[in-house]
Amino acid sequence: MTRFGFIAILLAAVIICAVPAFALAQDAGGQNIPGAGANYETRLSGLEEEMRNLNGQLEQLQYSIRRIDQNTQRMQADTDARLTRLETAMAAQQQQAATPPVQLPTQTPVVIPTTAPPLTVIQTPQPTQNAVADAPVNGTLGAVKMRDGRVTGAIDNPQSPPLPQVPADYGLTPQEQYDHAFGLLRQADYDGAEKAFKAFIDKNPKDKLVDNAKYWYGETIYVRGRFDEAAVAFADAYQQNPGGSKAPDSLLKLAMSLAAIDKTADACTSLTELRAKFPNANSSVRARAQEQRVKLKCGG
Q: What are the residue ranges spanned by the domains of the chain?
């Protein structure tokens, strides 16, 4: 039962209890007590006004929740579309790279003989022991010298090493950490997004957003062509929660990653499981899965 449903039931119970109380507002002879009815009518009117106010607040909260859901869905759809365009461009580049370049006829290089001047060996005198001891040593401490077993010429007040940088997600809530990682992904900072999603998963293994984080973590690897690592990431995302909201997407991307590393049979197995377990998956997921089945000639 939701919080608002509980409040509505509580108010209804108060009104039901108020009616018998109004009926009992009589003296011992059965006569109504003067003014009691008006008092209860006033209380009932106040309760009705409070119920109207609560209903108005409930409608405002429901509207706000719908707006948040719509914005979240729109952001994720926009990111999916961008990644799809990027994957298409990468596939075109790979196909172009697979085409062997045209071999141009080679020409025999012309060698022009040159006369090199004779080498001249210059004999330099060996330094004495004292000269070696007095020679400066270039380093971060300056001109350091050794004399009579002692070091001289060092800096008296060396600079302290810089403090380590504060992590970008320091002090953030799990939701803020996820939003930070997703923002990097939307900016196409895939290296930063990979690290941010990995940090979120390590710090919040039981959070409600961990399924989404594992899927997007795999995406940051997939879009950069590291298909073997992406296959591992998507397989982990699916196996950790086979019934999660991102399970169909993870199966699809697992199949595409496997296909990219020439594991066609395993890719078809993933697509078959996707069709069997998620017949009502998102239409875009089902369409791309069918496209992959035709491309890989999975059959069935």
A: 3-24+36-75, 174-296
pLDDT by residue for the chain (300 residues), tens digit each? 555 455 555 555 545 554 444 444 454 455 555 555 567 677 777 787 788 888 788 888 877 787 777 777 778 777 877 887 887 777 777 667 666 655 555 555 544 445 545 544 445 555 555 544 455 544 455 566 667 767 666 555 556 567 667 666 667 899 999 999 999 999 999 999 999 999 999 999 999 999 999 999 999 999 999 999 999 999 999 999 999 999 999 999 999 999 999 999 999 999 999 999 999 999 999 999 999 999 999 986
Q: Can you name the CATH fold of 174-296?
A: 1.25.40
Spatial distance between the Cα atoms of 194 and 227, rounded to a whole number of angstroms: 14
**Closest of 14, 33, 13, 10 to residue 23, by C-alpha:** 33
